[in-house]
Every structure is written in structure tokens, then in C-alpha cells.
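testing teh design pipeline on a random one, pls ignore if ur not involved
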């Protein structure tokens, strides 16, 4: 499901306008993005949690030449699936 499909699903399920559903989804995603920018953890019971993982500097390799390169420290978003969702998907 992509963003447009989520908006459409919300509009149909809750019998609201497409524009209103889009506003709601945009608000939710904006709040989640702002929290992650602030390095805050997001936990949605039954779904999972979003955290920012920090990686230290390390020596990597250029895939074309094989030469070692220094990879700078970085922060990346990470999603950890919740127990309930995992059990539903696995069966």
C-alpha cells in the first residue's frame, strides 16, 4: 500500500472527503518525521517502533575499485516490527 492508497482507504472507511483524509495522513506523517528528526522513538502498539540508529565511522570499500574508503558517521531510521504484526504475517 502506498500513500495514495492509504488516503483512499481512510476516506472510504471513515466516510470522509479525500481532501480531509489527505490532511490527516499528512499530519500523522509530519508528526512522525518531526519526532525522528529530534531523535525521538516512535512506538505504535501492534505495528512496531521507529528508532534512529547511529553508526560510527568505519572503513568501507569502493565496490568498483576495491579501494578502502572512510565512511563518515551517520544516523539512519530503522523500523522494528512489533510482536503482534509479526505473528499475523507469519501465521
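output:
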Amino acid at each position: 500500500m502506498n500513500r495514495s492508497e492509504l488516503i483512499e482507504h481512510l476516506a472510504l472507511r471513515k466516510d470522509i472527503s479525500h481532501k480531509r483524509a489527505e490532511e490527516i495522513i499528512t499530519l500523522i506523517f509530519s508528526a512522525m518525521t518531526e519526532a525522528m528528526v529530534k531523535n525521538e522513538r516512535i512506538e505504535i502498539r501492534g505495528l512496531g517502533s521507529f528508532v534512529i540508529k547511529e553508526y560510527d565511522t568505519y572503513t568501507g570499500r569502493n565496490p568498483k575499485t576495491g579501494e578502502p574508503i572512510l565512511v563518515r558517521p551517520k544516523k539512519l531510521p530503522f523500523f522494528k516490527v512489533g510482536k503482534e504484526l509479526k505473528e499475523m504475517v507469519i501465521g
